[in-house]
Amino acid sequence: MSRLEAQRGATMVEFAISSLAMLMVMFGILECSLLLYTYHTVSSAARQASRWAMVRGSDCVAPTCPADANAVKSYVLTQVPLLDTSQVNVTTTWASSNDCTVTSPSGPAGPGCVVAVQVSYPFQLHLPLIPISAVTLSSTSQMVMSE
After folding, report:
1. For the segment 40-63, what is each residue's pLDDT rounded down to a tens digit?
2. What pTM was computed for the model?
3. 137 pairs with which residues across the strands?
4. Is pLDDT larger for residue 12 or for residue 87?
């Protein structure tokens, strides 16, 4: 009976230690899920913006044409509704290819040129025992302009 009395609080201590480890793993999985969701959002915004810009080149006649770097950035900000839009960085460049020559790498170009959109976002980690405070997520998409 004295041996049982010596083990009296051991179950509570074991539960406290194991539940702490389980909660740390669970919150780590949640944080990684948020990181992957944010990367997917950034990647999707870059792809959508390059598609949007490739049809709004110097030969486009629609009301939103031609699309310059500011218009592409405004479009990207509509594609990331759950992110802090003040933290989203968008870089748009136009490059020459075999079929065209770009007069200005910061402005719209004609058919055959390449438009590249890079979107980056600093993701804040909220894990207490890991010293990394932010991870910069970045994605680039480039497409050949059609108009």
Report:
1. 999 999 999 999 988 888 777 777
2. 0.80
3. 121
4. 87
Give the separation between CA 36 and CA 27, rounded to whole angstroms: 14
Is 60 exceeded by the pLDDT of residue 1? no
- Residue 112 backbone zone (phi > 0: left; psi -120 to 50: alpha; other: beta): left
Backbone angles phi, psi at 139, to 5 degrees: -145, 140
String of DSSP letters for 1-25? -HHHHHTTTHHHHHHHHHHHHHHHH
CA dihedral 81, 86, 89, 94 (to 10 degrees): 80
Closest CA to 101 of 112, 117, 116: 112
92 forms bridges with which residues in the sheet? 117
Determine contact, residues 53/119, Cβ cutoff 8 Å: no
